[in-house]
Amino acid sequence: MRQGRGVMASSMFVIAVLLVQGCAVKWWASESGQEGPTQVELIKEPAIKEIPPDDGLLTGWRTSPATQSELLSRTTTSLTHRTLSDVLFDFDQDTIPMDAMRILDADAKQLQQDQVARLLLEGRGDESGTSAYNLVLGERRARNVKSYLQELGLSIDVTTTSYGKDRPLCIEHSGDCRQRNRSVHFVVQ
User: Fold this and answer.
1) How does pLDDT run across 108-142, given as a tens digit for each residue?
2) Across the strands, what pairs with 103?
3) What is the CATH class of 65-188?
4) Calpha distance 179→126 (Å, rounded)
5) CB under 8 Å, gap of 24 or more: what pairs does 177-180 form?
6) How many angstroms separate the CA atoms of 57 and 64, rounded?
7) At residue 78, what are phi and psi to the nearest 5 degrees?
8) Over the Cα atoms of the chain, what is R_g?
């Protein structure tokens, strides 16, 4: 009898797992009328629509004043190579713009000339959208910049990270500041 309960418990567990996995499957019908399963992303956020915030309604960033001053001082002192430029991205995009490719070409030459061994690429997003969405977007931006640098033949140790919108380079609530935060920032290590 105990063995029967064990088999029944195992069977119930397998059924529960299959039901949970089934929740991630979406049924669809093709134009020909045939139905079939397709996998969908469980957490999918819609594209962000840029609505400039009303500065009077904003009470500040999520970071404390002490953290804001630390970020400002870090930003101004983190680069020993003042000729490296941040790569700016269009709103809600991770594709490197054409004008940024010229900047990356110059940055790659400068990194080779200075014989830099290690580089950290910090991806960021602006204050629009959720923190989770901007973390993913910032990581995609940083990885795209890393890939482009590798395609240029830059053979140094490059790591990426994303701060999303939670560690902004600029803390003002303006269009120029939001543009500056939609970026990949170079930190020579």
Assistant:
1) 999 999 999 999 999 999 999 999 999 999 999 99
2) none
3) alpha beta
4) 7
5) 178/126, 178/127, 178/128, 179/88, 179/126, 180/86, 180/88
6) 18
7) -70, -30
8) 23
Name the pLDDT band for 83 (thresholds 50, 70, 90): confident
Q: How confident is the model over 14-41, as pLDDT tens digits?
A: 665 555 454 444 444 444 455 555 444 4
Specify whether the CB–CB gap between 88 and 146 falls below 8 A: no
Q: Using 50, 70 and 90 to split pLDDT, how confident is the model at 64? A: low
Alpha carbon distance 42, 60 (integer Å):
32
Burial of 100 (0-12, 13-18, 19+ CB in 10 A): buried
CB atoms within 10 A of CB 63: 15
DSSP reduced 3-state for 120 = strand
Domain spans of the chain, in order of start: 2-39, 65-188
Q: What are phi and psi of 82, to 5 degrees?
A: -65, -10
Helix (H, G, I), strand (E, B) or coil at 70: helix
Residue 106 to residue 167: CA distance in whole angstroms:
26
Amino acid at site 92: D
What's the one-letter identity of residue 77? T
Coil, strand or helix at 151: helix
